[in-house]
Amino acid sequence: MAITRVIPVLLLRNQGLVKSVKFKAPKYVGDPINAVRIFNDKEVDELVFLDITASTEGKPVPLALLQDIATECFMPLCYGGGIRSLKDIQQIIQVGVEKIALNTIAHEQPQLIQEAAAVYGSSSVVVSMDVKKNLFGKWQVWTKGGTVNTKKDPVAWAKEVEALGAGELMVQSIDKDGTMSGYDLELIRRVAQAVEVPVIACSGAGTVEDLARPIKEANASAVAAGSLFVFHGKHRAVLIQYPGQQVLRQLFS
Amino acid sequence: MKSQREYQVCTRCVMDTSDQEITFDADGVCNHCTEYFELAKVLIPDPEEARRRYEAMMNMVIDSGKGKEYDCVVGLSGGVDSSYVAYLAKEAGLRALTVHFDNGWNSELAVKNIENIVNKTGFDYQTNVVDWEEFKDLQIAFLKASVANAETPTDHAFLAAIYKLCKQYNIKYNLNGSNFATEGILPDSWGYNSKDVKHLKAIHKQFGNIKLKTYPLLGFRREFYYTYFKGVKNLRPLNLVGYKKMEAMEVLKREFGWKYYGGKHYESTFTKFFQAYILPTKFGYDKRRAHLSSLICNNEITREEAVKELSEPLYQPNELAEDREYVCKKLGLSDQEFEQIMDTPGKSHTAYPNSEERLKRIYRIYYKLRGRDSNALKK
Amino acid sequence: MIVIIDYGVGNLGSIRNMLKKIGHSSEISSDPEVIKNAEKLILPGVGAFDAGMSKLNETGLVALLHQKVMEEKTPTLGICLGMQLMTKGSEEGQEAGLGWVDAQCVRFRFDEGKKLKVPHMGWNYVHAQKEHALFDGMFEAPRFYFVHSFHLQCNNAQDVFLTANYGYDFTASFVVDNVMGVQFHPEKSHKFGMQILKNFATYVAS
After folding, report:
1. What distance separates the 2 farthest-apart alpha carbons in chain C?
2. Do A239 and B115 touch (CB under 8 A)?
3. Residues in contact with B7: Cβ distance below 8 Å, sequence separation at least 6, in sequence order
4. How far apart (Å, rounded) are the C-alpha atoms in residues B261 and B245?
5. CB distance from B131 to chain A under 8 Å?
6. A2 to C146: CB separation less than 8 angstroms, yes or no
7. pLDDT tens-digit series, residues B36-90
8. Cα B32 to Cα B30: distance, rounded to the nearest angstrom
9. Which of A179, B67, C4, C136 is deepest in the core (most CB within 10 A)?
10. Strand, helix or coil at B377?
11. pTM to 2 decimals?
């Protein structure tokens, strides 16, 4: 059996690392290159970098920074944010990134999923979705950094992108982001049960124990977290942490 | 700044003529260890008196915190001195607020050490993260200025962060890890007061490009405000506990699972590179000499052991290449730019506008007012 | 000089980066002159079998590689698709493989009711079936990063070096004389991968 992946998700904004709460008020967390180096020394399974302004502000993919990051990273790296074309994807993969995450563009140009999967393999193509509950408690998929409501149902959307060739799905809950109050297990379960491809649960992990729940209770194949690995204590002070192998093995046994 | 004198090394400690101002007596003993022992008489009380003063200090801190959330601030770097202060604070039952200044150069070991300490002590924790673009610009400015005190950007901001917290939480005492035992020997020319904001601003103006917006500046006036009006005091508990670095490391390993990163201040990748490569290459001295000399005088190691350690290279070639590449990458320096920095001869901090004389005068007056011998405290 | 064969497929930069990190220089090249003089070869690769094999054939290097590997016995390491290309062929495609190892590639097949997600993607533990220098000084509980839908099936049990388990035990690495292959990505398996590459870089045929 493959080992359950536990993935730190780091948000980029103008060359700096930030962390948001419910996709708002990003707080500066530090320099990404040193953060990657530290995570590398901590032997984390995989890293996901999402540039949160590239999409909303129409900025280009930060290739130079990505290259610096990729050369510090000796584990799989996934990048998302502002990818608009196959050429973007080619350039990103060329600097040493394993996977790309498509979010907004997947809605605007769904054929890009197919094209990317054909050239680079499904396992390099992650489709990431940001989900928020509306006033009536119904889940809807949002894009552009949580600013535009597509009104789509996450389960239907998941099936659609799976058919187009997405190799993995990353599900982020806007409501749970940065709150450290636990994952939205129901959301993750609904999506994971509807598709065959691996689902990465994201948003909301508050304790190390939380990490096990999407796997054990919601059919997720991997878990991701941001605040949990980057903040410590009641003052939410920046301190990069990652559970040791012993702890992880026990968690998922 | 290569030495023109004939080479000579002290017969008691290991300071040598790489400190251009060193003097030797007829027995070949240098001024540094001689001064060390003289100052130790003033600064390090005998064990009984030390114990008494230590308890008084801890009680004073506890009293000051009554009715408040915290009674002191403890700055953490992940290094041995500050980690040991955290240990002492826990033992004494203090309610400390720990703070770390994240300048973007932390090694994973340092971060892990900090994590273990805050978890095991249960102290609340804050970090002060400076905007990397601003900080990077300031660091490069100091490198281009070619001064030996390239750590000023970090040290200055660290102190400013501490004062800010003290004000925010109405804390009177900052427990810091400065200690005479392992730091007593340090030639004046090998460092400079990081509080001199005039100096910092001058270097930034000449070599920096980005405006300092979030970088915390601590001018003399502001420090005066904090210390005189707000009554914030810097306490040095390590001088009252017969501090021995080796013993301290054993305690930390046992209590916190603390790990050593090899070399004083090597918990920061930049500091390691600066002290182990840039300083010796540009300025011709190896700071280990000063640290090891202090340890000799503190009876922690023998002169033979110090000589042996000094014969070990500061860097293995593979490691040096790796760190050099990383530092250049982080700072965004091309090979050419870096070579230019390395080729520029080292300069004294006096080559740039500074408030040294003014500060010396002010400290003299300040200490006179507080009834302490300013000479003893010039270090 | 270790030469990483550039046939337009695979993340060559990452392999070179890791080699550099552990103190070994390498060159990425498709130049026959460079490959001819290589002391060691690395054949990387990611993606589909036929696409990889076609691209490799297009470079015109195959004959030279046969000579270097099979006749001159140059130590050669195949990574992921690179390793699969060294076999006789794959269920995934039509093209013939390089045939440097007596094996073929098959799709992951699970019994009904025990189906696992394909591709096998993520970290997994490996177990050594025989001793080999590639595993010198390996850390405890070695694990590596895998991402593949097809795996090797060796026809000679003694060629199998490492196995991993994904629903069932499969060949994660083979070694036959100077020809070595790993299904996982050492360049993405931090300290574990570094040890493999370090051992390959210092490998001397006994």
Report:
1. 53
2. yes
3. B16, B17
4. 14
5. yes
6. yes
7. 998 888 888 889 999 999 999 999 999 999 999 999 999 998 889 999 999 999 9
8. 5
9. C4
10. coil
11. 0.86
